[in-house]
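Notebook, p. 212. Picked up where the previous page left off. The plan for this session was modest: take the two constructs that came back from the sequencing core last week, fold each one, and keep the raw output in the notebook itself so nobody has to go hunting through shared drives later. Recording the first one now, exactly as returned: residue sequence, then the structure token string.
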Amino acid sequence: MQILPQILPLLAPLSDAQQQLRQTLPTKPAPVVLSGRFVRMEPYVAARDAASLYAISNGSPVTIGDRSVAAYDADALVWRFMGMGPFANLDEFQDFMQRQVDAADGLPFTVFDSASNQPVGAFNLMSNSPANLKIELGNIWYTPAVHRTAINSEATYLALRHCFELGYRRVEWKCNSLNERSRQAALRMGFQFEGIQESHMIIKNRNRDTAWFRILAHEWQQVKAHLEALLAR
């Protein structure tokens, strides 16, 4: 049987460097601080971050620098499509964050607004699979005070740059198929839509069909240029 020429690269073994990365990248991502023009991302520390993150995501009025929002519906604007939340109290929120800290294959970050040095949300490297050189960006949320700003774009850019510089071949973004805001954000930032996985999960006693997106290593330079252009505006 003749193998089509375009199939041959897919059958080639990984490079020696990639094979080594599969053995050396940690399953729990190594802590790192990622800094840009608009945001700084630091590994979540409960004593430092929990109370502030809860306060900016529980529906209370929020002021971040010169941006403010009045009392809001925390379910509608932050938690509706997340695995948990809204939270009745700080202890429940801390439990939610601690599960992410304890995950063997994930690392949660607190995202800080660079100008005000205030926390504005959370971001995770998760579902890490070094053996397959893939990782996911997930459990991402921001206070409504910074919605429609450059915060999400730059945090995603910094995380993507970090992952591809480490040598990952694939970075994933997944969300509830009903989460139109997340789906549009993924497309706007250069992720490729791969399809809907139906009946993927049961979340909050409801069915979740999951929309899958990804960026591959050979696509990164084009996506990087796209995101840098967005952030330069």
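Okay, moving on. Second construct, recorded in the same format:
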Amino acid sequence: MGREFELKYRATPEQLQLLRAELALDWQSISMETVYYDTPAGDVSRRKWTLRRRYENGLSVCTLKTPLPDGSRGEWEVECGDIRSAIPMLCKLGAPEELLSLDAEALQPACGARFTRLAASVSCDGCTLELALDSGVLLGGGREIPLCEMEAELKSGSENAALAYAEALQSRYHLIPEPRSKYARASRLAKGE
């Protein structure tokens, strides 16, 4: 299992432009189109899981994320073009076997996101992280809202070091902490909330 520790911050397009310009990093552009899945009964969201298929520059990656007691998330990913076919593959990687008990045929798109990510690796004192600048839209219920945020995802090393680095960027660029995932925000949009 991969364990995901990431910090998200709301930003404006101008703040992201400034971050990109001032941080001398090797930014890679990734076009992302995400579909989040659930059953009509909400079997996935009731477990506080996220089940998605994301196209990353045309490559289809299916992912399951689950909450962990320390506030981070369990994460399993597999290259696969179909969410239903990905379920047994995710379980073979260590995802909860309970995933197999879901009615895979009942899974349907619940909401989504479409955005461009500028990503770069950052090595700082005590950790390596991926810094991502995301710009696009969240989709749900036939509506869309703007998406503009910075993510700092720990790849190795100390969580405290990653937090210190992200908080320094937050302070310098006046970013606002965003505790909700893209899925949580898109799901609320789909529900008209």
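Notes on construct two before I forget. The CA atoms of residues 3 and 97 lie 17 Å apart.
Flagging for discussion at group meeting.
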